[in-house]
């Protein structure tokens, strides 16, 4: 046989192989139903089952392109009892026409009741098994059942559900009202067995009780009171997980401090309020920004373990209701600085004490630094961070650099106006 | 029966060949001193009475008192020069001491005895003068072939830089090159490369730059041709290239004399022929197809901006449609959610799978392109209307294709025009279809596999001994003119891969 003919046959058979065996995993985009969020609740009366909720995005909603577009709903929600959330796609397909896929999955929501359950960790680890689930998806805890959460949540301006969640979670993290909370972090911290994991805490129901205390930043999900024509869902504070089980929730302020004290996170800036040192009736607005990296010094080997934390901060004071002229008065500025320093240090110390006494470990990721002090893994394991942390000496010093006093630093003297 | 028929016709051919062989042996002999015999011989060679444009004029030269005959083909000669510089001086001669050479006042004249050479000269538009009693013919340059004047470039347009292009006359083309390289070391060798039509090929190079081995290689390849006729360079290209089935071109075809001249100045070899409004540059690398002359005429940042656009256009052309198909049908998790939902929304009512949809549009685009090229110019505008309106707008409105596919195919098609060279353009277009094919069967895996294979293949190709991707890989000393060019003052080396005798440009 001439070589060309032989070659032709080989090429043809290779091509035929393509025709006959190609197209593995081929899935057309329009033939799939994209799950944006999975909700997991406890199934009523059934110990080893869970209730799965799917939030499915409708691609056609809000599309202005030719060929698409219609008055269809932007989402579809389905809840049902299943064994876990991997095989549940098949069950859901008995109701939903398109093939269910997790390709666009953005978050996993868990009800607080289920998150506080000892068995919870057995189910959440299914997420590591599913091929399509990415590790950077958000992990959030809802105060009520996730089924209720998804159904009540009805954003008015962002039609597509993934857009709404992406935006609100991103702004929340930037403002420090919620932690970052990625699924990957959850698994890492749970497996390291030393720190606390902070998950996003959310609720779609307003609680009918008054805000606690004077500070509006001392609230968690469901406690923010607002009126108007808007969505009722709120993402506030964090859910604290110890060893893969939820134990408590943190307020906005605590969440912010936890982010500030965490050397692995790079926070942006937060706005907060503190009591005015010049007039007790008012509060000052401060804009807090990290000024250089956090310094965490640990002496773990000899005697009682000791942790020194230096938090360098740039503070901008953005309100001046007592109308004091501290921008021009060095003495008053010092007083202001001292007062801010004291109140921040006290807040941080309170939080650390809370973690030591109540939680017995910390959510600041300090164990990562502590690890480096040990030369072998077994030494570290013998040290047992969770056991030793509650008895450690912790010293926090906040180093403050005053920044600008708002866009315009001077205010008129109130005596002159009111004379 | 078919066989018998074939054999019959074949036998006839053989007979014809025998008669032409007789003529061939006749041509190898010398001419006779007897004018009458010579005239009769040439009359029979040229079928004098049947051939309308063959002219034979017998004259008597006074003074030296000899009979003579002038033989030429009047459609390819300049009648004025024959009249003024040959016929009248001969007729008006009264001086008995003068030789024929001295009577004729024309610039170029040779003498030759061999019939075959004389015939070649006559065929090239020269005039043969036979004088009674002399055993040689005078061959007087008087050729004047009809052709175009030097015109603007048609395909390789530039905004800044010379506008003149080669035309179908080799003499003009050589003159255009000589205008740019005024050096005695520029050599124009001529060869006859076909047996029956006797086509001339001009090999142009600079003798103190070109690598002798390369030159010998080219000459060997040209000399080994065994064909009756090679009308022009486009056909010659296919005769001399190494890989005739390859989709990559290995000989550069340019219509710009400035480009040819700058290649000669770098030690390349340029081929010219009559009837070809262009030149062939040997050897060619991938970069010579990728570059245009304008990038050196534009200032450094502007030229490189164009290069950046072109390399991006190259990849856009190759990959947009295939990546779209791969991602949409196999890897939807790679697409950002907003885009994926937008794609899914527009595809909702489209009846075809994404791959078929893209193939349809690609096919339609290639059709518009081909039709636009072949359509007679008075009905040209129709193509635009049909293409833009019916295929773009109506197909989307009828839900045959989704709008994003129109964008993708149009973007890929538009980008493909950035590759100006016609051969490389075909390479890229065919490559794009192959990649699309691979992507629709095996997704990004197939795409990557085919692209890798393509790169392997490109690295393995050689053009006249020069690796296709040099000087990028394998590395050679050169001016560094690859994807981007350097500042002119830093381009001090000639390309090392053509092995020039002098590698420094200064």
Give a quick precis of the structure.
The complex is a heterodimer of chains A (419) and B (506). Chain A has 419 residues and is α/β, with parallel strands linked by helices.
Question: How would you describe what is shown here?
Answer:
Chain A has 419 residues and is α/β, with parallel strands linked by helices. Chain A has two domains: 224 residues, no CATH class; 159 residues, Nutrient germinant receptor protein C, domain 3 (GMP Synthetase, Chain A, domain 3, 2-Layer Sandwich), CATH 3.30.300.210. Chain A contains 13 helices and 14 strands. In chain A, a hairpin with a 2-residue loop joins β8 and β9. Chain A starts with a helix and ends with a helix. Chain B has 506 residues and is an alpha+beta fold. Chain B folds into three domains: 121 residues, no CATH class; 115 residues, no CATH class; 171 residues, no CATH class. Helices cover 48% and strands 12% of the residues of chain B. Chain B has 17 helices and twelve strands. Chain B has a five-stranded antiparallel sheet with strand order 1-2-4-5-3, with helices on both faces. In chain B, strands 6-7-9-10-8 form a five-stranded antiparallel sheet, sandwiched between helices.
Rg from alpha-carbon coordinates of chain A = 27 Å
- If strands are numbered along the chain, what order do they take across the biggest sheet of chain B? 1-2-4-5-3
State the helicity of chain B in percent bands.
40-55%
Evaluate the radius of gyration of chain B: 30 Å
Number of strands of chain A: 14
Which spans of chain A have pLDDT < 50 for at least 5 consecutive residues? none
Structural class of chain B: alpha+beta
> Could you describe the largest sheet of chain A, including whether it forms a barrel?
9 strands, mixed
Globular, elongated, flat, extended or rod-shaped: what is the shape of chain B? elongated
Distance between the termini of chain A: 113 Å
> Which pair of chains has the greatest number of interface residues, and how are they split between the two chains?
A-B, 33 and 30 residues
Structural class of chain A: alpha/beta
Total beta strand runs of chain B:
12
Indicate how many domains the architecture of chain A comprises: 2
| Morphology call of chain A | globular
Strand content of chain A: 15-25%
The total count of helices of chain B amounts to 17
Query: What amount of the residues of chain B lies in strands?
Result: 5-15%
Order of helices and strands of chain B: HHEEHHEHEEHEEHHEHEEHHHHHHHHEE
Tally of alpha and pi helices of chain A: 13
Order of helices and strands of chain A: HEEEHEEHHEHHHEEEHEEEEHHHHEH
């Amino acid at each position: 046989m001439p070589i060309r003919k032989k070659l032709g046959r080989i090429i043809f058979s290779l091509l035929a192989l393509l025709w006959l065996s190609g197209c593995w995993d081929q899935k057309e985009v329009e033939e799939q139903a994209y799950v944006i969020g999975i909700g997991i609740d406890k199934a009523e009366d059934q110990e080893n089952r869970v209730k799965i909720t799917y939030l499915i995005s409708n691609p056609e909603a809000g599309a202005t392109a030719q060929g698409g577009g219609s008055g269809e709903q932007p989402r579809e929600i389905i809840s049902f009892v299943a064994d876990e959330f991997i095989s549940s796609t098949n069950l859901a397909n008995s109701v939903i026409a398109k093939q269910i896929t997790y390709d666009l999955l953005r978050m996993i929501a868990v009800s607080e009741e289920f998150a506080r359950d000892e068995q919870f960790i057995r189910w959440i680890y299914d997420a590591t098994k599913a091929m399509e689930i990415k590790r950077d998806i958000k992990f959030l805890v809802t105060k009520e059942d996730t089924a209720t959460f998804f159904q009540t949540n009805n954003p008015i301006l962002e039609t597509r559900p993934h857009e709404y969640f992406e935006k609100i979670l991103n702004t929340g993290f930037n403002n420090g009202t919620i932690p970052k909370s990625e699924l990957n972090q959850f698994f890492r911290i749970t497996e390291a067995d030393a720190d606390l994991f902070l998950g996003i805490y959310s609720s779609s129901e307003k609680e009918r009780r008054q805000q606690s205390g004077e500070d509006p930043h001392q609230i968690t999900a469901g406690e923010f009171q607002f009126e108007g024509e808007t969505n009722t869902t709120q993402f506030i504070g964090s859910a604290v997980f110890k060893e893969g089980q939820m134990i408590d929730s943190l307020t906005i302020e605590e969440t912010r401090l936890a982010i500030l004290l965490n050397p692995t996170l790079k926070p942006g800036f937060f706005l907060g309020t503190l009591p005015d040192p010049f007039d007790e009736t008012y509060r000052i607005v401060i804009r807090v920004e990290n000024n250089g990296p956090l310094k965490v010094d640990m002496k773990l080997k000899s005697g009682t373990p000791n942790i020194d934390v230096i938090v360098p901060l740039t503070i901008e004071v953005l309100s001046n209701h007592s109308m004091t002229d501290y921008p021009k008065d060095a003495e008053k500025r010092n007083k202001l600085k001292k007062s801010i320093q004291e109140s921040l240090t006290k807040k941080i110390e309170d939080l650390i004490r809370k973690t030591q006494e109540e939680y017995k470990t910390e959510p600041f990721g300090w164990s990562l630094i502590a690890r480096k002090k040990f030369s072998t893994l077994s030494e570290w394991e013998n040290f047992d961070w969770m056991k030793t942390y509650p008895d450690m000496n912790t010293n926090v010093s906040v180093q403050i650099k005053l920044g600008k006093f708002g866009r315009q630093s001077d205010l008129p003297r109130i005596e002159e106006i009111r004379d | 029966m078919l066989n018998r028929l074939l054999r019959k016709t074949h036998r006839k051919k053989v007979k014809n060949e025998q008669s032409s062989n007789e003529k061939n042996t006749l041509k190898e002999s010398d001419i006779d001193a007897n004018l009458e015999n010579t005239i009769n011989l040439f009359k029979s060679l040229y079928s004098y009475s049947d051939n309308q444009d063959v002219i034979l004029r017998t004259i008597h030269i006074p003074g030296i008192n000899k009979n003579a005959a002038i033989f030429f083909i009047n459609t390819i000669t300049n009648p004025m020069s024959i009249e003024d510089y040959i016929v009248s001086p001969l007729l008006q001669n009264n001086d008995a001491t003068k030789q024929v050479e001295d009577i004729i006042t024309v610039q170029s004249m040779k003498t030759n005895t061999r019939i075959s050479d004389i015939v070649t000269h006559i065929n090239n538009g020269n005039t043969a003068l036979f004088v009674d009693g002399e055993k040689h013919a005078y061959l007087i340059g008087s050729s004047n072939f009809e052709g175009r004047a030097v015109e603007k470039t048609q395909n390789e347009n530039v905004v800044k830089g010379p506008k003149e292009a080669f035309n179908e006359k080799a003499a003009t083309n050589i003159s255009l090159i000589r205008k740019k390289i005024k050096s005695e070391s520029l050599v124009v060798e001529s060869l006859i490369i076909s047996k029956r039509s006797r086509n001339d090929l001009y090999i142009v190079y600079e003798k103190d730059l070109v690598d002798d081995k390369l030159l010998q290689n080219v000459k060997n390849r040209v000399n080994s041709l065994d064909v009756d006729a090679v009308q022009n360079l486009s056909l010659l290209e296919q005769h001399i290239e190494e890989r005739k089935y390859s989709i990559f071109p290995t000989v550069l075809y340019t219509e710009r004399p400035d480009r040819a001249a700058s290649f000669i100045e770098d030690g390349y070899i340029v081929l010219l022929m009559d009837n070809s409004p262009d030149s062939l540059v040997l050897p060619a690398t991938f970069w010579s197809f990728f570059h245009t002359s304008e990038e050196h005429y534009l200032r450094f940042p502007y030229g490189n901006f164009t290069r950046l656009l072109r390399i991006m256009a190259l990849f856009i052309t190759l990959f947009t449609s295939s990546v779209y198909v791969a991602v949409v049908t196999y890897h939807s998790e790679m697409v950002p959610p907003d885009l994926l939902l937008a794609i899914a929304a527009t595809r909702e009512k489209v009846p075809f799978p994404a791959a078929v949809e893209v193939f349809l549009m690609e096919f339609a685009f290639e059709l518009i392109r081909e039709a636009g090229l072949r359509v007679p110019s008075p009905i040209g505008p129709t193509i635009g209307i049909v293409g833009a309106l019916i295929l773009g707008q109506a197909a989307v409105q009828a839900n045959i294709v989704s709008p994003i596919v129109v964008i993708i195919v149009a973007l890929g098609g538009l980008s493909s025009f950035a590759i100006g060279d016609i051969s490389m353009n075909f390479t890229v277009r065919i490559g794009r279809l192959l990649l699309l094919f691979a992507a629709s069967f095996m997704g990004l895996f197939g795409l990557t596999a085919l692209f890798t294979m393509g790169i392997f293949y490109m690295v393995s190709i050689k053009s006249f001994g020069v690796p296709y991707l040099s000087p990028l890989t394998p590395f050679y000393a050169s001016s560094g003119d690859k994807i981007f060019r350097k500042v002119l003052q830093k381009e001090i080396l000639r390309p090392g891969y053509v092995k020039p005798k002098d590698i420094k440009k200064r």
